[in-house]
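Lab manual, section 2.4: Encoding a predicted structure.

Procedure: take the sequence of the chain (533 residues), apply the prediction step described in section 2.3, and record the output as structure tokens. A sample record is shown.
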Amino acid sequence: MMALRSLMYLEERQISFELAMKFCYGVNFEISIENIALLRCVAEHLEMTEEYAVGNLVGRTEAYLAEVAFKSLSGAISVLHSSENLLPVAEEVKLVSRCIDAIAYLVCKDNQFAMPIEGVHTPHHKPIVDWWAEDLTLLRIDFFQRVLVAMMARGLKQYALGPILMLYAQKSLRGLEVYGKVRKKIEPKEEHEKRVILETVVSLLPREMNALSVSFLSMLLRSSIYLETTVACRLDLEKRMALQLEQAVLDDLLIPSYSFSGDTLFDVDTVKRIMTSFLQFEMDRNNGGFNMADDYVSPLGDFERVGKLMENYLAEIASDRNLTVAKFIGLAELIPEQSRVAEDGMYRAIDIYFKAHPSLADMDRKKICSLMDCQKLSREACAHAAQNDRLPVQTVVQVLYYEQQRLREAMSGNHSGAESPVIMSRRANIFSTDTNPPASAEFAKLKRENENLKLELVKTKMKLKEIERSATNSPARGPTGSTMYSADKPPLPRKSFISSVSKTLGRLYTFAAPHPNPKGRTKPPKDRRHSIS
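Recorded output:
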């Protein structure tokens, strides 16, 4: 790159002196937008001023700049672009600063986003990119920054800079494999140039809400991690994404870790910081301490969308074998309970994590399952969880218990529409006979069976604890000398326990054609002697 610039400088120097010689000897040549910057600099270098001759080259070039070049936006941008290779002479004759002032003046003169409109607040309006924005992308980053600062000084709205910055960043950062899973090596000089460009673009981003899309912010954040920019640059992008997290999709959060140390495939820590910033913004907004975009209020639907988005993200990264239990739990705990109307998404993520990590300890499984509220599971999720061998027994017991509780509420007249799978499977049998409705004795029987089932569940939990304790300790005897559960006896299999509880639930509600006992008492069925109690 330096060799190419040196060659261009030598060629331009040769051309400039040829034009100066033609001017001195009276040879006609055309002054144009392409060579005006070169002529102005060589005239200054050779001191071809009015002191030595009237109508000298300095005066001719200044007249052309004032009457032609600075009158059109394309001309001013072209002259500024040509001045990049003529430094520091172009700065000494103030050619660069005058080009920047001319560009800012011409843009703000006819731009609808230059002056504020009274009574109309338009922070969310998305301006249309004009043709001149494409020309500005040809400038190097320091000239580009000075042009945008001059535009804002002339009154251009800051949010109108969003599309211009997007064009410049997309063109300047082209070639970075930010969507790959491996960080490819690039030349140190090129990496430094792109890092400077990215940090400058981030510093110029508008502060208004919704001035930039979340996908663009995600691209900048990926590039920032890829190029290893400053921490302040990355944190700024994370906070901007947090402010618009309700507009994000799953792909915006799947940021590769770009690590060779065998860490997780995706950058979980970055997403965790984004979610933490989102919760902090929500807290500040509710407390009245949020100053950015005061007219913006986060609806409840957006809050629920963020919860659903994070559940999908958990399910996506759960299959990563390098994802530790601490990271999974830490990210799941950030999802507020009020944003989780149903727990199906959390259950799906937990099930995928258990499937990808089959060697998890029982204690870790219990900790992970404690993140889920079994009462909020849908009918389909309850049916799946009741037969899921990967879940701890205690979680399966809770699911079955809440199924039974929902059934009891439904039978007592609270038809909330949240029936469990057991209810749905027997709904037709319960209401199949219109002429023989369930008698009051059957409801009394149902109530007694419910209480018995509660007692059985409590006994089962106690028995499971005793089995687990005896499996780790040596065989012990009670105070009366009776042998308790020994370690050589295998614990009860999970399937037999689940099937027995499910069978008990099934026996509770098979009264499609009831036959009440004339004595008013119900005899317990013979199958009860095989109960789990």
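Check your result against the sample. The radius of gyration is 37 Å.
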